[in-house]
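wait is this the right file?? whatever heres the structure
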């Protein structure tokens, strides 16, 4: 294949001396050929370059995600180190709204539940707390000293405690409702306060039932008439009854003619 430089020399009718210089042209053409080959293959290498850029972007995004998760992991561990007291619960709730690292999501939810449970236990240990008052009402109801609603009312609970002490249940040294008081009530296995039943009721075990002996059954009028004893006929009944001979003809006395009235005087000699 004739190089470009050699074609130029032949076209211009160069001399022998110039042809001798063709070797230098061949060398020049050889140096230019690789460059052309690279330019020819540049289309195939362009697709590979695009893939390389995409892979680079993917790697960059994954690295950013890992970096964000690491930062949020450190923040999460710092909140857990504060515990469920103080500002820990509030910071944990705020962190749960902003966390973007998916693997941390379930861990944050579990930590919130644990903080709430710890807070409930602490509040239950506080004297006169709602949890302790309700627990005291339940125990007093079991012992028969409280018959109200389990509402956590401190006033009704103290009234029930006074009933408990007056029936020999024990002595309550402090007016406060504490864990120690609940534990002392729980040690009783038998009823302390007697069962109080209303009017017309009697106690049977741990319940009040209607006193059947004080409740007379209702008597219907027909039954009353059937159960009434029969009376003997008296003078008043005889006067009330009509005469049986009212419709019969009068019988004539024997030994006297008809129409003759017998004398009512007997033994006078007339």
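ok assuming it is, sequence goes like this
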């Amino acid at each position: 294949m004739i190089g470009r430089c050699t074609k130029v020399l032949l076209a211009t009718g160069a001399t022998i001396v110039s042809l001798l210089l063709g070797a230098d042209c061949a060398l020049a053409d050889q140096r230019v050929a690789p460059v052309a080959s690279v330019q020819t293959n540049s289309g195939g290498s362009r697709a590979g370059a695009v893939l390389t850029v995409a892979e680079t972007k993917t790697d960059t995004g994954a690295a950013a995600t890992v970096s964000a998760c690491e930062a949020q992991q450190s923040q999460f561990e710092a909140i857990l180190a504060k515990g469920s007291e103080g500002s820990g619960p509030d910071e944990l709730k705020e962190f749960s709204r902003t966390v973007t690292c998916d693997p941390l999501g379930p861990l944050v939810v579990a930590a919130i539940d644990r903080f709430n449970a710890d807070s409930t236990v602490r509040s239950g240990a506080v004297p006169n707390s709602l949890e302790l008052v309700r627990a005291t009402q339940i125990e007093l109801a079991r012992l028969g000293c409280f018959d109200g609603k389990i509402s956590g009312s401190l006033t009704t609970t103290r009234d029930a405690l006074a009933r408990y002490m007056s029936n020999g249940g024990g002595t309550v040294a402090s007016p406060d409702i504490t864990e120690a008081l609940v534990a002392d009530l729980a040690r009783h296995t038998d009823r302390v306060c007697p069962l109080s039943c209303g009017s017309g009721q009697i106690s049977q075990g741990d319940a009040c039932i209607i006193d059947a002996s004080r409740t007379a059954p209702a008597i219907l009028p027909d039954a009353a008439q059937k159960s009434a004893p029969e009376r003997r006929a008296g003078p008043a009944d005889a006067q009330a009854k009509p005469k049986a001979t009212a419709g019969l003809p009068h019988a004539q006395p024997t030994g006297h003619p008809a129409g003759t009235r017998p004398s009512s005087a007997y033994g006078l000699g007339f």
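The mean pLDDT is 73. so i think its the right one actually
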